[in-house]
Amino acid sequence: MPFKKLDTNTLILIAMGVPVILASAGLAAWLYQSSPAVAKPTAKPTKVAAVVQGKALTTDQATALGIPTAEMQKQAARRPQQPSTQPTQDAGKALEVLETPKYVSNAEAGVTTFEKRPKVAIVIDDVGVHSALSRKADKVLPPEVTFSFLPYGSATMELAKKARKEGREVMIPLPMEPMPRLDEPPIDPGPNALFVELSPEEMRKRTQINLKDLKDMSVGVNNHMGSRFTSDLEGMKVVLPIIEESGLFFMDSLTTPNSAVEEAAKAVTPNMPLLKRDVFLDHYITEDALRAALQRLEKEAKATGKAIAIGHPHSRTLSVLQDWLPTLPYKGIDLVPITHMLADDTPAFEPSAPALPKGIAAPQNSQEENPSDAEAPTSIEEPQQPEPMHVINPEDQNGTTGLY
């Protein structure tokens, strides 16, 4: 094919463009030679997902994201490790300690108290079994009085939930083996009770069963009966850690002078709060005996700054308490929920009259020095056929009971 003859103008443009092209090519070659050597990729780059700082990827995650396992391991080794929030078998107990104990989260403020005034806490024990008397106790006693609900009581869950809504602190009496009595049949402390001959595994199981339904609304545990079991050091060493892990404190009801609770606590739960009662109100259920017990409680509180009493929902006990509680402000004594006994302060006695606790009316004669002579309010009628009362002992014809 013959070439077309180019005109003069075209030839001139070609002549001018060739040097420009050659100069540009030379400049590019010079720049390429001056730059650092760069390895050319031989394969498509691996797709790598962004790694969240502080969070290691598992091998399965790395594979799914296209990260080579070896590279993932290198990244994990270089990455700053953050403390794990997942419980492990070894760290389980340590993590439990980080949780707020229930004796803190479930504690109630009570009425305004004065730091330098003596304090008394009253625990009504074994609530929930005798439903009529338990309801009476809930009705006539102010929320500053703590209730300890037997796990197997027919009215326990209903009244325990009601107590919490009303601002009352709740405890759990743990059924334990009593000492045998001469010439009398064995005493049954109730379902899932702890006996010294049980294996440690069975002790743990029964303790957990008893705590299961009530522990989330409770602040502490005390022993129901248990004069034999609380004397057994090894048995208490098994039980106390479960109570501590549940975020609760333990109060020794002191049903025996040979209690091993304190020794066991020092050995296995040295950081768990431990209380013990000072006065039993209704060891003998007569008005004179009850009033004498309350006088001992007052004396102990004034001498040491605080004192704990345990009573039961007996009709006489409730009646005497209704009469006695309104006198406390005029004696310079504060009625407080049981968790207030966990403080280490032991204030000196400085008489002063604070506000009365909720639900308590002032006595008619505030100058009365001996309120035990006051007339008790009319009591609520007892049911004609009451439920079996699995407290320390049901009232008998003589109105007495015994410590088990």
Give a nutshell description of this structure:
The chain has 404 residues and is of the alpha/beta class.
| Overall average residue pLDDT | 75
Q: What's the helical proportion of residues?
A: 25-40%
Alpha-beta classification = alpha/beta
Distance between the termini: 128 Å
Low-pLDDT residue spans = 36-98, 346-358, 362-404
**CATH class bucket of the domain at 112-373:** Alpha Beta
Could you describe the 3D structure shown?
The protein is an alpha/beta fold and 404 residues long. The chain has a domain at 112-373: Glycoside hydrolase/deacetylase (TIM Barrel, Alpha-Beta Barrel). Helices cover 34% and strands 11% of the residues. It has helices at 8-34, 59-65, 69-78, 92-98, 102-105, 131-140, 156-165, 200-212, 233-245, 261-268, 287-304, 315-324, and strands at 119-127, 146-149, 170-176, 220-225, 249-252, 274-276, 279-280, 306-311, 334-335. Strands 1, 2, 3, 4, 5, 6, 7, 8 and 9 form a 9-stranded parallel β-sheet that branches. α7 (156-165) links the parallel β2 (146-149) and β3. Residues 36-98, 346-358 and 362-404 have low confidence and may be disordered.
